[in-house]
């Protein structure tokens, strides 16, 4: 059965996502000329965004990955942000950009920000493809935002429900009967 049948509404098409990526890539390229920033992809959700975003940055960058989880497949944050895999490289003296698919409660980026405060990065900024401000309970804000989303649980383009739907090329909302 096609995943498309589980979708009630498409919020952002592949074209809208591509346009957002292009704009974000241009902004980052402009702001980080000659700085060789370290883009830290927050797995798993941000994997599609990272790979598309970096191709829109015609400047030298490096990438690394952290695996962080707090939703455990569901639709609400457990508040317990688990670091499953840390970076391979040191961030001391580096210009770091966290790459996120979505900022929702802000719990994930608050925990990463606290962790990085002691690691002596030269600068730390955040790029998030989607901003969902409705449930924010931490005062984190992305420096670069692609798309703003209403108070709905979304899937696709990296984002999951029970680890599925990440491979949808668009971002949408599931039919209510899927949440069982
Ligand atoms: O602002 P928050 O409320 O913390 O939500 C945002 C985070 O939640 C999701 O990750 P999740 O824990 O679902 O792990 P996943 O990326 O592996 O799906 C998403 O990819 C962000 O990292
Ligand atoms: O709306 C969402 N969808 C998928 N994953 C998420 N993680 C935080 N918010 C969301
Ligand atoms: Mg998830």
Automatic annotation (TrEMBL):
GO molecular function, one term: magnesium ion binding
Keyword Coiled coil assigned: no
Swiss-Prot/TrEMBL keywords: Cytoplasm, Glycosyltransferase, Magnesium, Metal-binding, Nucleotide-binding, Purine salvage, Transferase
UniProt xrefs under InterPro entries: HGPRT, Hxn_phspho_trans, PRTase-like, PRTase_dom
Required cofactor(s): Mg(2+)
Gene Ontology CC entries for this record: cytosol
Catalytic activity: IMP + diphosphate = hypoxanthine + 5-phospho-alpha-D-ribose 1-diphosphate; GMP + diphosphate = guanine + 5-phospho-alpha-D-ribose 1-diphosphate
SUPFAM superfamilies listed in its UniProt record: PRTase-like (SSF53271)
UniProt xrefs under CDD domains: PRTases_typeI (cd06223)
Known EC number: 2.4.2.8
Pathway(s) annotated for this protein in UniProt: Purine metabolism; GMP biosynthesis via salvage pathway; GMP from guanine: step 1/1; Purine metabolism; IMP biosynthesis via salvage pathway; IMP from hypoxanthine: step 1/1
Keyword Lyase carried by entry: no
Compartment annotation: Cytoplasm
Gene Ontology biological-process entries: GMP salvage; guanine salvage; hypoxanthine metabolic process; IMP salvage; purine ribonucleoside salvage
Main localization (coarse): cytoplasm
EC category name: transferase
Pfam family, one: Pribosyltran
Domain Phosphoribosyltransferase residues, every copy: 15-162
Family classification: Belongs to the purine/pyrimidine phosphoribosyltransferase family.
Function: Purine salvage pathway enzyme that catalyzes the transfer of the ribosyl-5-phosphate group from 5-phospho-alpha-D-ribose 1-diphosphate (PRPP) to the N9 position of the 6-oxopurines hypoxanthine and guanine to form the corresponding ribonucleotides IMP (inosine 5'-monophosphate) and GMP (guanosine 5'-monophosphate), with the release of PPi.
Protein name: Hypoxanthine phosphoribosyltransferase
UniProt gene name: hpt
